[in-house]
Specification:
This protein is an alpha+beta fold. The chain contains four helices and seven strands, in the order αααββαβββββ. The chain has helices spanning about 5-20, 25-45, 50-55, 75-90; strands at about 65, 70-75, 90-95, 100-105, 110-125, 125-140, 145-155. Strands 3, 4, 5, 6 and 7 form a five-stranded antiparallel sheet that branches. Strands 1-2 form a two-stranded antiparallel ribbon. A hairpin with a 6-residue loop joins strand 1 (about 65) and strand 2. About 15% of the residues are buried.
């Protein structure tokens, strides 16, 4: 084979390979990530562990932090059990996202977010207002669905 012609053969093949790579609409992906995060918030408001389960990864190696010093979850099972107990502890909840920032990895298979939100919890007919709750997390696209693989919430100290 004449090696002088190798670049002429390889170039069209490379162009064909790269043109077959599907283009990712980052705007659509960011919207899908935000929808997953909002579904997590909705699951908390509705006290719906099944909805929460749909958006969370069920990895037994996940590590998540909540707002209190003891809110450390070392697995999906711990996260689930803790939230079932939390759902029983309040009557109603409202989460209002105020400043959501979402970022995508270059291949759009991983996303991370930071949000500032206000929470109202109703416990025994008493409103408990918590402002500027900071929530950060990481999502991974698995089987065309965004799953939360890490999450952290914190309450700012004055």
């Amino acid at each position: 084979m004449n090696t002088k012609n190798l670049p002429l053969i390889a170039l069209p093949i490379l162009c064909l390979l790269f043109s077959c790579t599907p283009k990712v609409d980052s705007g659509t992906e960011k919207t899908n990530v935000i929808e997953a995060i909002n579904r997590l918030y909705q699951s908390f408001e509705d006290k719906d562990i099944d909805l929460m389960s749909e958006v969370m990864a069920h990895d037994e190696s996940m590590l998540s932090f909540g707002t209190s010093i003891s809110d450390l979850h070392n697995s999906w099972s711990e996260w689930r059990n803790n939230h079932i107990a939390q759902f029983e502890a309040f009557d109603k909840a409202k989460i209002t996202s105020k400043k959501m920032n979402v970022y995508l990895s270059q291949n759009s298979h991983v996303a991370w977010f930071a949000d500032v939100s206000d929470w109202i919890l109703i416990i025994d007919n008493e409103n408990i207002q918590m402002n500027d709750i900071r929530i950060t997390g990481v999502l991974e696209k698995r089987n065309n669905s965004w799953k939360i693989v890490q999450i952290h919430a914190s309450v700012p100290q004055n």
